[in-house]
Design goal:
By secondary structure, the protein is an alpha/beta fold. 32% of the residues lie in helices and 11% in strands. It is built from eleven helices and eight strands. An eight-stranded parallel beta sheet has the order 1-2-3-4-5-6-7-8, sandwiched between helices. The protein binds 2-oxo-2H-pyran-4,6-dicarboxylic acid (0GZ). Residues 39-310 form the Amidohydrolase-related domain.
């Protein structure tokens, strides 16, 4: 089946980080049929660099991954909508992400990166474009640490618009960040399950600490995403593998089963910074029924929850 996403990725005007793995061209058609109205609740656009230059402060230079390629993948996989999360390679310049929202005809919402001096008029404009959240990143290989006061200043600006804060952090840093997170007075959305060490016991104290954090407030959501990033023993979603990333399943399944109304799923296309392999996104979609085994859990994870968070006025 030919899709425009089969075109080989390129990187215009920028030199990619050495060893960069490009997104998988020509993904298979998912065997798991996504329910009507499914949302890819975590994906990115990269550039194209010629039109939307990568930020000078970036920690990596990716291959291009345009909005048209993202929308072609959406259609090919059977998603209806996207949530486009600002990628760190674009810093706090949200223009590529906003351009994708604008082109989507209402089928995409966004999560932005903001500096503390952002004005109310700028936040209002982003809201009108479809942005509904701001991302705070604590992963040191991706961004330099931001002073807490800067983050507070941003929270004050976005709170009146009903936005949430998306947090990305390493499991080992949760103990230090927990109190700060719990003091943020808007809903929180955790990226990639808080990056558990999946070589450890899913019933062990580390993952229990994560679940306890989720139990601390009813408005903490979790993306049960990125098995391709978190998996240690695989097997990868390649070469027709239909039971990929088995070691991640018990972690994600615990979250889905305990918090069925506050979990989200997305592809994480174009999968920045993978070093080992690049998944076939069609096979990656096949991960979902392993972590959400019933049609009801699947509908909540893929349709009801993301629609409630990002399109509360839909239907
Ligand atoms: O783990 C990562 O490297 C990663 C990077 C980014 C980004 O650069 O924005 O986003 C993600 O969701 C994951």
């Amino acid at each position: 089946m030919a899709t425009s996403s089969e075109k080989a990725p390129s990187s215009t005007g920028f030199e990619k980080t050495p060893g960069w793995l490009d997104w998988y061209a020509g993904p298979s058609r998912p065997q798991f049929r996504l329910p009507e109205g499914a949302v890819d609740a975590h994906c990115h656009v990269f550039g194209p660099g010629e039109e939307f230059p990568y930020a000078p402060e970036r920690k990596y230079t990716p291959c291009d991954a345009s909005k048209d390629q993202l929308f072609a993948l959406r259609n090919h996989l059977g998603f209806t909508r996207n949530v486009v999360v600002q990628a760190t390679c674009h810093g706090a310049d949200n223009t590529a992400m906003v351009d994708a929202l604008r082109a989507s005809g209402g089928l995409a919402r966004g999560v932005a990166t903001l500096r503390p001096d952002v004005t109310d008029a700028e936040v209002r404009e982003l809201h009108e474009e479809g942005v509904r959240g701001v991302r705070f990143n604590f992963v040191k290989r991706l961004v330099d640490a931001a002073p807490r006061q800067h983050l507070w200043d941003v929270v004050e600006k976005i709170a009146p618009y009903g936005w949430h804060v998306v947090v990305y952090f390493e499991a080992a840093d949760l103990a230090d960040l927990r109190d700060f997170f719990l003091s943020i007075p808007v809903p929180l959305v955790i990226d990639h399950m808080g990056r558990p060490d999946t070589a450890k016991d899913p019933e062990g104290p580390d993952f229990e600490a994560f679940l306890n954090f989720m139990r601390a407030r009813p408005d903490i959501w979790c993306k049960v995403t990125c098995p391709e990033r978190l998996s240690v023993s695989g097997p990868p979603a390649l070469d027709g593998e239909r039971a990929a990333y088995r070691d991640v399943v018990p972690f994600a399944r615990r979250v889905v089963e305990e918090f069925p109304d506050r979990v989200l799923w997305g592809t994480d296309w174009p999968h920045p910074n993978l070093t080992d392999h690049m998944p076939d996104d069609g096979l990656l979609v096949g991960f979902v029924p392993h972590i959400a085994p019933t049609p009801e859990l699947q509908r909540k994870l893929l349709v009801d929850n993301p629609t409630r968070l990002y399109w509360p006025d839909a239907n």
